[in-house]
């Protein structure tokens, strides 16, 4: 049996007045998701344990079959693994966003800065900022800072995407030597970045400059049992997002590179579907992740969110379902967490999920959305048990 999990990041939402009291998932044209609901079993899945932050790191770790209460240490070390940065037991890895800010946080991604521009700015930080730590270039605004000293893991900084529009000085860390050092780095980065050629050129092109860093999501290296030993399956991930790749590295999954996959609204959906379909020949388990609905949710853009959901259904899920007919197989489709367009950030609510495929009994649900699935046979489940349910249903 082959197993596929398709995650539409942030796909779930709340009813919107502009959609006549419906959610983007209800309004979107999703014939493939609806077909799965009609032929499979549905329910709600709690991907974020009570009391934990509704981050994609926590939620996807859960969906991948690892209880976050036991295995989660932070977002930073996951992204370190994805770009090949090995951490010692004493190292703490922070996610380093390049942001745009004045007195307030204007955006959390520096106008979606290009990766080449970001790499130049990261190099400038390593050259000019005084710190025993080191910065590493990642993809676009998503970069990394690593420093030795386990006590740095105790510094508390809110994710920048949760505080857009709020005063910078109200959200900077303080209260310990380590927190003060992180605060100083964030503030000192302004002088280096604002004067950099890259930002002058960005402004000349009508782009917002990356004029500050935001350090957050830190943690130490996690210890995870290999997926193949845990579930007896040879698996792979397909994603453009570093933290998902990092989860794959620590779980011993192969990360399949897809040209044109960007982790943004312009991602190549067709390529993701094609690569996933081809990968079924070699792998027993596929974790396919698409970031676009989450980006639309953060932007508060309902039209783009609907468009992203429809593209996932048509070009990713449709292609996977065609390929699955050649194998004994089962698939689950779900978001990792909701990212409501009115809230513009993650919420920890349970998400709608469906499991369909060989041997799965239909439960009478006719469409896939946040409300229809509540009538399904799966009830309310725990995220880290999803794969167990897929194998035993």
Descriptive report:
An eight-stranded mixed β-sheet has the order 9-8-10-1-11-12-2-13, sandwiched between helices. 35% of the residues lie in helices and 20% in strands. The longest helix has 23 residues, at 302-324. A hairpin with a 2-residue loop joins strand 5 and strand 6. The model has no long low-confidence stretch (mean pLDDT 96). Helix 5 packs across helix 10. It has 14 helices and 13 strands. The protein has 393 residues and is α/β, with parallel strands linked by helices. The protein starts with a strand and ends with a helix. The chain is globular. 54% of the residues are buried. It has helices spanning 24-27, 31-39, 56-63, 68-71, 75-82, 115-128, 177-194, 197-204, 227-231, 242-251, 269-279, 292-299, 302-324, 386-392, and strands at residues 2-8, 41-46, 91-101, 105-107, 134-139, 142-148, 212-219, 235-238, 254-255, 285-290, 329-334, 351-357, 379-382.
What are the SSEs and their pairings?
Blueprint: E1 2-8, H1 24-27, H2 31-39, E2 41-46, H3 56-63, H4 68-71, H5 75-82, E3 91-101, E4 105-107, H6 115-128, E5 134-139, E6 142-148, H7 177-194, H8 197-204, E7 212-219, H9 227-231, E8 235-238, H10 242-251, E9 254-255, H11 269-279, E10 285-290, H12 292-299, H13 302-324, E11 329-334, E12 351-357, E13 379-382, H14 386-392
Parallel strand pairs: 1-10, 1-11, 2-13, 8-9, 8-10
Antiparallel strand pairs: 2-12, 3-4, 3-6, 3-7, 5-6, 11-12
């Amino acid at each position: 049996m082959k197993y596929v999990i398709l995650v539409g990041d942030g796909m779930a939402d709340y009813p919107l007045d502009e959609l006549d009291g419906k959610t983007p998932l209800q309004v979107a044209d999703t014939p493939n998701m609806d077909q799965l609901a009609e032929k499979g079993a549905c329910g709600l899945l709690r991907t974020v344990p009570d009391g934990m932050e509704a981050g994609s790191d926590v939620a996807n770790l859960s969906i991948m079959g690892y209880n976050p209460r036991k295995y989660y240490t932070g977002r930073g070390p996951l992204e370190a693994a994805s770009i090949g940065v090995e951490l010692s037991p004493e190292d703490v890895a922070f996610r380093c966003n390049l942001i745009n800010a004045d007195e307030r946080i204007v955006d959390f991604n520096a106008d979606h800065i290009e990766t080449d521009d970001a790499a130049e700015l990261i190099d400038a930080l390593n050259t000019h900022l005084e710190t025993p730590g080191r910065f590493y270039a990642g993809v676009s605004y998503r970069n990394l800072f690593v420093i030795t000293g386990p006590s740095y893991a105790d510094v508390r900084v809110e994710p920048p995407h949760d505080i857009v529009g709020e005063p910078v000085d109200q959200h900077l860390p303080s209260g310990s030597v380590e927190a003060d050092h992180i605060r100083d780095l964030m503030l000192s980065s302004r002088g280096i970045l604002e004067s950099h050629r890259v930002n002058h050129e960005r402004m000349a092109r009508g782009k917002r400059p990356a004029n500050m860093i935001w350090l957050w999501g830190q943690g130490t290296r996690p210890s995870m049992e290999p997926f193949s030993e845990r579930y007896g399956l040879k698996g792979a991930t397909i994603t453009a997002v570093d933290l998902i790749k990092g989860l794959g590295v620590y779980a011993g999954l192969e990360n399949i590179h897809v040209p044109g996959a960007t982790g943004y609204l312009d991602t190549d959906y067709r390529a993701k579907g094609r690569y996933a379909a081809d990968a079924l020949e070699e792998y027993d388990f596929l974790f396919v992740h698409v970031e676009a609905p989450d980006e639309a949710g953060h932007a508060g853009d309902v039209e783009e969110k609907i468009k992203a959901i429809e593209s996932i259904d048509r070009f990713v899920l449709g292609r996977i379902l065609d390929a699955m007919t050649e194998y004994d197989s089962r698939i689950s489709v779900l978001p990792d967490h909701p990212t409501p367009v009115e809230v513009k950030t993650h919420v920890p609510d349970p998400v709608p999920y469906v499991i369909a495929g060989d041997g799965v009994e239909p439960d009478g649900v006719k469409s896939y959305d946040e409300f229809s699935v509540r009538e399904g046979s799966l009830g309310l489940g725990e995220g880290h048990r999803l794969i167990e349910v897929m194998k035993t249903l």
